[in-house]
Please model this.
Amino acid sequence: MSTAPSHKTALCLIPPENLWEQIQSIRSVHDKAYLRWMPHINLCYPFAPESEFNNIKVRLETILNARPSFEIEFDNKSIDYFKQKGNECTFHLRPKVNKHVIELQQIIENLLPNNLRSKRSFEAHLTLGQATTSRISDIMVEMKANWKPIKFIIDRVCMISRENDPNDLFSIKNEVLLVGANEQHDDEQQLMSIGAPETLVETRSMSTSKSRLCIIPPDEFSTRLLHLFEDTSFRPMKPFQIVLAEYDRAPKESDLHSRINSISKFTVDFGARSICFNYSTSRLFLKPNDIESIQRLNLNNSHDFDGTLTLGDLDKQDLTEVGNRFTQNWTKATNEFEVDRVHVMDSNGRFQYTVPLKSQCFS
Model:
């Protein structure tokens, strides 16, 4: 027998908090639920009682952990409204592209049919406020004229509740990560065990025939990351690396110097939601916030190049724990490093030589 849904819980998508300011400045004036709700897109409301969250999370993870993250954009064309009872309207933001949100909601509906009892068809939207029909046209004009487009990555589904909150305010109680890969990543890298870095655990197919041009993070950066994987199934690549190019035969050092010595050193940084997972290969990696600088080192002009930092392999049951640790421990200062050289490694992971990047000079 299923439990009746609760209007004090919801399953939803929540934008990153650093993008709330514009949304909240509107909601604080126009939305009667401004204090109770954070900015959100409901996938399921009402939802299951909070006491069922843990069981539902396990069910959702079996499917959603394999789903990739996706981007949502709100531009001025996203501002819309629908009529309510009487002369009231609710105005809101609709994602510029609805496809991924609709697909996600449909998957959840199929997984949890007893928890989605709304008779209305699903319409992805983020509520901004309420107005009367006589005022809505003026509000639409003003909003669209002043709105600054925002984009963000959705990499998790949130379970929120106000059931036990003394102030009757919603807060996040559980999260399910979307960590499937958007595309196939390099599957040819060598993996080492944590305890025995000299012991080869696995060699991917074709890796014996390829040399690599790589960016290797400094030891202090890698050490900080390794602490996040303690007591998990994580099997790190030694060393962590961004593969820039692959060669059947290692290029001559003089040739690489001539191609690289004009490229200035730069900084690579990762956001709180940069951690990603290739579900088909169990590969864990970080996506830089901006790959423009790294792209200059894509010497083979590979169309598949995305600048990801490959970390190693992880069993899928540890995905949520590792993702939460990374997000909770993220700070800008500890998740960036300077790239001032690149390395050539042979097919067995041995360093062949290093090529420095150009030092930036200021007059």
Observations:
- The two ends are 75 Å apart (CA to CA).
- The CA atoms of residues 30 and 210 lie 60 Å apart.
- The first helix runs from residue 20 to 30.
